[in-house]
Write a structure and sequence with these properties.
Two copies of one chain form a homodimer. By secondary structure, chain A is an alpha/beta fold. In chain A, helix 10 (217-228) crosses helix 11. In chain A, the strands form two sheets. Chain A has a six-stranded parallel sheet, sandwiched between helices. In chain A, strands 7-6-8-9-10-12 form a six-stranded mixed sheet, sandwiched between helices. Chain A has helices at residues 4-11, 15-23, 30-43, 49-56, 74-87, 101-113, 128-135, 158-171, 187-203, 217-228, 244-257, 290-306, and strands at residues 61-66, 91-96, 118-122, 140-143, 152-156, 177-181, 209-212, 238-241, 266-271, 284-287, 314-317, 320-322. The first copy, chain A, binds a DNA duplex through helix 2 and helix 4.
Chain lengths: 331, 331
DNA sequence: TTGTAGGCGTTATCAA
DNA sequence: TTGATAACGCCTACAA
C-alpha cells in the first residue's frame, strides 16, 4: 500500500506538501496540489489512520461492550450507538460479553490497547470497583445500569417498570401474580424483582411468589410449566416475566398445557422487543427505548471525549407500558 | 498514558528490554523481568496496539459491513463473525450500511484507512466492479451473495429455497400462490423471485402473481391487504413472502380482515428469524443458518489474511424448510 | 543478557 | 509556498 512518501516522490514534492494537501491546511500552490492529487490517485493512496493516530492520539474508534447482540433486546441499542458514532465520524468495535465478567474485562483490556477513545458498556456485570480498575481513565457510558463513582449512565427505572407491570395485572383484575425473575447476578433482574415485590406488598392479595430463571425463552417455558402445575388457591392467574423472551416461553407453556394466555393467565413481559407484538396473544410489556438510549449514550460519550468534564450525567429514560392482549380477560 | 519509555526509565533498563518482556521473546534475566513487570504495573502500562500496528502492519481488526443490525436476520450473523474473530484475537468493527451503496463505500473507505485486515461484507448491494475498486486488495468474504471475480463467498441458495417454499405450498394443497417480493435492488430478493416463478411454472396451476414490497413488516401487511381484497378465482389461497418480516405482516393482515392464517391462507416466509416460531399461527419458513454462515465467513477471512492464496472459496449452505402451523389446513 | 539506533506512516514546527 | 526534521510508541536488527 502506497505511503505518503511514494506520493511525494511521484509528485516530485516533499512529504510535508503532500500532508498539506491531504489535510487541506497550510498554503499550497494550486498547480502542485493538482499534481499531488494525481499522484495519490495513480497510486491508490489511502492515508493510514493508524499512523495518524500515533501522532494525533485520536483513533476515532469507540468500543461497544454488550452482552449478546443476538439477544433481541440489544440490536436496537447497538444500532443507536453506531448511528450516533458514524454521524461523528467514529467507528464502533462490537464486543459480546455474554454477561461474563472475564469476557468484559478481556474486551476492555483489548479496547484500551487498541486506544479506543471510549466505550459504551451495556448491562455490565462486573463490580464497579473492578470495572474502574481495568477501565482506567478511558471515558465510558453505562447503559442499563447506574454507575455510582464514574462515567455517565443511561437507563430506565427497572424497579418502577416492574412495579407498573405488576400493578397493571392487579388492576386488570388478576389476583395472584407470580414473578419469573432473571438471574440474580444481573442487576436489572434484581431491580425488577424489587418492583414486583413492592407491588405485591402494596396490593397485599398474597405473598410474593418468585421463581428464578435465566432470561431465556426456554427458561420461561419451564418455569411456567412448574408454576402452572400447582392446583388450588396457590395457583397463580398471572405471570410477570422478567423479560419478553421468558414471557414468550410462558406463552408457549400455555399453549402446551392448553390454557389461554390473557384469559386463563395474564402475562406481562419486559423490554418491548419487536416480536412481542406478534405473539399470540400479543404480549403486554414494558417497552424500553433501546435505540434512543444507545444513541444518547454514544452522544454523551463523544461529548465527554471532546470535552472531558468533571460533571457526570445520569439519565433515566421513560419506559412505556404497552397493553396488549396477554392481559385482557376477554379478547 | 505510560509508554514503554516510562517503564524502561522506572525499571532502570532500556526500552528493548521492556519490549522483550512484553512480547516474551529474546533472553531476559529473571530478576530484570520481575522489575520490569513491577514497573509496568505501577504505571498501569498498556502497550499501544496502534504503535505496534504501525511497525508490524497488523491491526488485529476486521470490518463487518452489514445492512442493519436491528433487522432480526442479521444479529446471528454478526455474532458468528464476532465469535470467530475474538477466538483468534481479532476485533470487529460494526458498520450498518442500510443497503445503501454510498454508505457501503464510505464504510469500506474508512475501514481501509483504519487498516483493517479484512472485511466481511453481508448482503452487499453494490456493483461488483465498483466494490472491487474501493476495496482494493483488502481481503474480504461476501455473505448472502456470490462474488464473481474476487473474495470468498458464503450464501444459501435463495432460488432453490424459494422454489422449495412455493412447492411446499402446492404440495400442502394450496392452489394459488402469490409472492410478495423484496426490493428488486436486493439480489437475494430477485433470486427468491426466480425460485417462486420456477415452482409456479412447474405446477402450472396459474400465472405467477407478484407484488413488490420492501422486506419490512409494514410492507408485507399492506401488500397482503391489497392481495386479499381481490375476490373470485384470482384470489390467492397462499402467500409466499420474501422474508419473515413481511410474512409476519401477512399474518397481521389476516388478523385484521378476520381470516385464519394457515387455514384460509397458507403463508411461508424466509430466513427463519427467532420470532417466526412465536407468531400465531407459527410461521412456516426457510431457515438460513446465520450464525454458522457468519462464523464460517470470518474463518475464511482470517485464513485468507494469514495465508493469502490464489484460491477462491465458495460455500453454499443448506437451508431448512421449517414446516409450522401457517401451512396446515387444519390446526 | 542488555542497549543503541533505525524505521513504521504521519503530522507539526521551523526554516528557507 | 515549500522542505527538513523531530516526534508519536513500539519493534527489530545489530552491537556490545
Amino acid at each position: 500500500m502506497a505511503t505518503i512518501k511514494d506520493v511525494a516522490r511521484l509528485a516530485g514534492v516533499s512529504v510535508s506538501t503532500v500532508s498539506r494537501v491531504i489535510n487541506d491546511n497550510g498554503y499550497v500552490n494550486a498547480e502542485t496540489r493538482k499534481n499531488v492529487i494525481n499522484a495519490m490517485e495513480n497510486l491508490g493512496f489511502r492515508p493510514s489512520n493508524i499512523a495518524r493516530g500515533l501522532v494525533s492520539g485520536k483513533t476515532y474508534t469507540i468500543g461497544l461492550v454488550i452482552p449478546d447482540i443476538s439477544n433481541p433486546f440489544f440490536p436496537d441499542i447497538a444500532r443507536g450507538v453506531e448511528d450516533e458514532a458514524i454521524a461523528n465520524n467514529y467507528n464502533v468495535i462490537l464486543c459480546n460479553s455474554d454477561w461474563k465478567v472475564e469476557r468484559e474485562t478481556m474486551y476492555l483490556s483489548l479496547l484500551i490497547e487498541k486506544r479506543c477513545e471510549g466505550v459504551v458498556l451495556v448491562g455490565s456485570h462486573s463490580e464497579e470497583s473492578d470495572l474502574l480498575k481495568v477501565i482506567g481513565k478511558m471515558p465510558f457510558v453505562s447503559v442499563d445500569r447506574e454507575m455510582v463513582h464514574a462515567g455517565h449512565s443511561v437507563w430506565v427505572d427497572n424497579e418502577f417498570g416492574a412495579y407498573t407491570a405488576t400493578k397493571h395485572l392487579y388492576e386488570e383484575g388478576y389476583k395472584r401474580v407470580v414473578h419469573i425473575s432473571g438471574p440474580p447476578s444481573v442487576r436489572s433482574a434484581n431491580a425488577r424483582l424489587s418492583g414486583y415485590k413492592k407491588a405485591v406488598r402494596e396490593f397485599n392479595y398474597h405473598e410474593p411468589q418468585i421463581i428464578e430463571s435465566d432470561f431465556r425463552t426456554s427458561g420461561g417455558y419451564e418455569s411456567a410449566l412448574k408454576v402452572l402445575e400447582q392446583q388450588g388457591d396457590s395457583r397463580p392467574d398471572a405471570i410477570f416475566a422478567g423479560n419478553d423472551l421468558m414471557a414468550i416461553g410462558v406463552i408457549q407453556a400455555c399453549e402446551k398445557i392448553g390454557i389461554k394466555g390473557g384469559v386463563d393467565l395474564g402475562i406481562v413481559g419486559f423490554d418491548g422487543i419487536g416480536s412481542s407484538a406478534y405473539t399470540s396473544p400479543s404480549l403486554t410489556t414494558i417497552f424500553q427505548p433501546g435505540y434512543e438510549m444507545g444513541r444518547r449514550a454514544c452522544h454523551l460519550l463523544l461529548d465527554e471525549i471532546v470535552n472531558p468534564g468533571k460533571r457526570r450525567i445520569k439519565e433515566v429514560f421513560n419506559f412505556e407500558l404497552l397493553v396488549r392482549a396477554s392481559t385482557k380477560w376477554i379478547k
